[in-house]
Design brief:
The chain is an alpha/beta fold. It has 23 helices and 40 strands.
């Protein structure tokens, strides 16, 4: 068995608080108070600045679930209120319970109250929130292994073994909106930005002041007004500074701000989750236009405001924002000259690419390196366990954190199916810690979850797993197996794989397709003319077309110097792409054949009849005093060139040079089989730090000759994406644009799948390959 290649895997290390989704109980009359209670509890947890609260009634809403899937949380937990919280929401509940139990003794009543206030309250709405959290946890693939959940509830009282209190990490005073004041949607819209503290402060804050504060967010002066005696240097509970953290992203920050209209729980959940992905997001639950609207619209003409809603139709949203624009109190130019600085969009059309990741300020982007072996499918298995490490500013006895490791040239898309078994090395204990794909790499819980002896050392209490970075083929196989789909390389894929092995890498194969060498290799195909070749330098044999150096030299490409061309031919020959040899005949039968150099000696045996021949003047062609060297092309490379194999190669080369896919993993053509029957063939797959894409690449601009063929092909391509959980489909062509009939077929298929409630991939159109490539999204129906 051949020894596996060994490499050092360069990594980037980050420590961060866990990302949490807290599902809170819902009550139509008191949903704001229930949401505020959950937010108040989350505001006391380290990591609340990167976590979200979602009312249980909003779980399952398509726009909310789309954002939660992109957030990819570490924990989905149900908020478990205490009797203290329940009594605050429904005043007099505990007193009525005492009356029902006929407890009249004051001392016994006081003891009963004290005991009851610390107990969990488990009403119907709590059970509904638990069910919603469990369903969401399964769909999002949060830290769960089989039927065991690492962290399932967030109670009113701390459990230091699960989530770290914010107060245990913060080095400055932390403040929020007093819980007793958050009774209206306007107050909740502001508290969403800064957090809520468990305080009994009283006061009357005018609705207009809450609205201005909600629109200004962290810039509002309202928090300092609520805490006039707070020491300098205090931070809002949901500020990243309070948690010693910073938000990072792999792309430029979006210039557009987002406003979410509507006063329903799903509107709050949409705004709350979008904040963690896009940053500048405001929830506007009130309908009245007022003085506070001066803070809504951008001051710069280059900035745009995206306006959306989870509960309102597009028409209703447009009407409401138009009213605000028309009645806004501050105008910079004449109304007839000014342009509206906002766009109304469906929530499903908001770009969620490159979400923020909240990391510990002093422990991110730190270099690491691990020895790894390269598996046959391109996966990497690390040979050593990671060294246990405590980031500066944290205490392993008091704090719990997430470790995230990313490899620059080996991304791991955060697919739900890439669980612990996929990203841990062979033989690694699955119970040492909870491991999964996240943030473009691998993340795991800082502390050991299996048996830890009392008094264990630091190394014995912290997790130090051996990890595996799955290759693109492994990713596809795992994703397809979850849907009972089998993946096999197609004939074209096998040809590409062989050529890749000859050249040494996918990048080298892509470079070949984009180089002047590709047209030269076309001269070896059977239908290529011998135009310009000197006599006797080009031969079309029964088995192959062969060229001598003179024919290669005569190839018309003034930009490719002969010295570089000669060097390229020698390199291809050493790699096996080309074979050097002679054209020889047989003394026993009338056949001419190419014989590679490795098969030639003074005597040789005819391939057709087996007759023995001597290497003599009358045996070689063309007739000359000394034989002339010829070159033939490796059969797999020849078929790749003949079948326009350069189109998918040019596509993946272009895509991997885009900032969002840099260093992406690429897989050659493959087939998807259901019940051993092939139902679609994909030309390539691309895995990035955020997504899995599938691609179709063509030299023409059509999916078929008839409408039925085009619809059928569009259906198969989208079904292929759904089969492996790919979020996008890339349609690539060498033409300057796809035919209108192709666009129509793709659009109609998307509409049909949306109406049927089926998974619908985003579609991008890549045109002009080999000349002027351009990538653009297919406009949603």
């Amino acid at each position: 068995m051949p020894e596996q290649p060994f490499v050092f895997l360069p990594l980037s290390y980050a420590a961060r608080p866990p990302r949490i989704v807290v599902v809170v109980p819902h009550d139509d009359e008191r949903w704001v108070r229930w949401t505020a209670a959950g937010l108040a509890r989350l505001s006391r947890v380290w990591g609340c600045s990167g976590s979200v609260v979602v009312p249980s009634s909003a779980v399952g809403h398509p726009a909310v679930d789309r954002c939660l899937a992109r957030l990819h949380p570490d924990h989905v937990v149900a908020y478990g209120p205490s009797w203290t919280t329940f009594d605050a929401l429904y005043p007099g509940t505990i007193d009525r319970l005492l009356a029902e139990k006929n407890i009249s003794d004051n001392s016994i009543a006081a003891q009963f109250k004290e005991m009851l206030r610390k107990e969990p309250w488990n009403g119907t709405v709590v059970h509904e929130a638990e069910a919603a959290a469990d369903s969401l946890r399964s769909r999002l693939g949060a830290n769960r292994r089989d039927d065991h959940v690492q962290c399932s509830h967030l109670f009113d009282y701390d459990n230091a073994r699960e989530l770290t209190p914010l107060a245990a990490v913060a080095t400055t005073p932390v403040m929020g909106v007093p819980a007793t004041l958050v009774t209206t949607p306007e107050a909740l819209a502001y508290a969403m930005h800064v957090g809520i503290e468990a305080s009994d402060a009283s006061g009357d804050i005018p609705a207009e002041q809450w609205r201005e504060a909600a629109l200004r967010g962290a810039e509002s002066a309202l928090l300092s007004q609520l805490h006039p005696d707070e020491a300098d240097g205090a931070h809002a509970a949901r500020s990243h500074e309070a948690a010693l953290c910073v938000p990072i992203t792999r792309a430029f920050q979006h210039r557009e701000r987002i406003a979410v209209l509507g006063n329903r729980p799903e509107d709050f959940a949409l705004a709350e989750t979008l904040r963690q992905i896009r940053g500048a997001v405001t929830w506007i639950p009130w309908t009245e236009a007022g003085l506070s609207d001066m803070w809504l619209f951008p001051g710069s003409a280059s900035e745009r405001l995206l306006v959306t809603s989870a509960s309102l139709s597009l028409e209703e949203t447009q009407q409401r924002i138009n009213t605000r624009w028309d009645r806004r109190p501050v105008r910079s130019v004449d109304p007839d000259e000014e342009k509206r600085s906002f766009d109304v969009v469906e929530p499903g059309n908001i770009d969620l690419a490159h979400p923020f990741m909240v990391v510990l300020k002093n422990a991110w982007d730190q270099p690491r390196s691990l020895p790894a072996t390269v598996e046959s499918d391109g996966s990497l298995q690390t040979s050593l366990s990671l060294a246990a490490e405590v980031p500066r500013g944290l205490n392993p006895n008091e704090h719990r954190w997430q470790v995230t490791l990313t490899a620059a040239n080996h991304p791991v898309p955060p697919l739900v199916v890439l669980d612990s078994s996929t990203v841990t090395a062979t033989g690694q204990s699955p119970w040492e810690t909870f491991v999964r794909a996240a943030d473009g790499g691998i993340t795991y819980w800082s502390h050991r979850y299996d048996f830890v002896p009392s008094g264990a050392s630091l190394a014995g209490s912290l997790a130090s797993p051996k990890l595996a970075w799955p290759g693109i083929k492994r990713i596809l196989q795992v994703a397809a197996a979850a849907n009972d789909i089998t993946i096999l390389p197609s004939p074209a894929g096998r040809r590409a794989a062989i050529t890749e092995r000859l050249l040494g890498s996918r990048a080298a194969l892509e470079a070949l397709a984009a180089s002047p060498g590709w047209p030269l290799l076309h001269r070896f195909t059977s239908d290529a003319p011998n135009t310009g070749c000197p006599e006797g330098s080009w031969w079309k044999l029964k088995s192959a077309v062969v060229l001598s150096w003179e024919a290669i030299e005569a190839h018309d490409d003034s930009s490719w110097e002969l010295a570089a061309r000669r060097e390229q031919i020698d390199q291809w020959t050493s790699q096996g792409v080309l074979r050097r040899g002679l054209i020889l005949g047989c003394d026993h039968c009338p056949i001419l054949e190419f014989y590679p150099l490795a098969e030639i000696s003074q005597s040789y045996r005819c391939r057709r009849c087996g007759g023995d021949n001597q290497l003599a003047k009358n045996r070689w062609k063309p007739a000359a005093d000394e034989p002339r060297w010829f070159y033939d092309l490796h059969p797999a490379v020849l078929e790749l060139v003949t079948n326009d194999g350069d189109v998918p190669l040019l596509a993946t080369q272009y895509l991997r040079n885009q900032y969002w896919a840099r260093g992406g993993l690429v897989c050659e053509e493959f087939e998807l089989l259901k019940d051993d029957k092939r139902f679609v063939e994909m030309d390539f797959a691309l895995a990035t730090t955020e997504e899995l894409w599938l691609g179709e690449a063509k030299s023409n601009d059509s999916l078929g000759r008839s409408p039925g063929q085009r619809r059928n092909e569009a259906s198969k391509l989208m079904e292929g994406c759904a089969a492996v959980g790919a979020s996008g489909l890339i349609m690539a062509t060498a033409k300057t644009q796809w035919a209108d009939t192709t666009i129509e077929a793709l659009t109609e298929e998307r509409r049909g799948r949306l109406r049927a409630g089926k998974a619908v991939p985003r579609i991008s159109l890549l045109t002009g390959l080999g000349a002027s490539p351009k990538l653009s999204p297919l406009t949603s129906p």
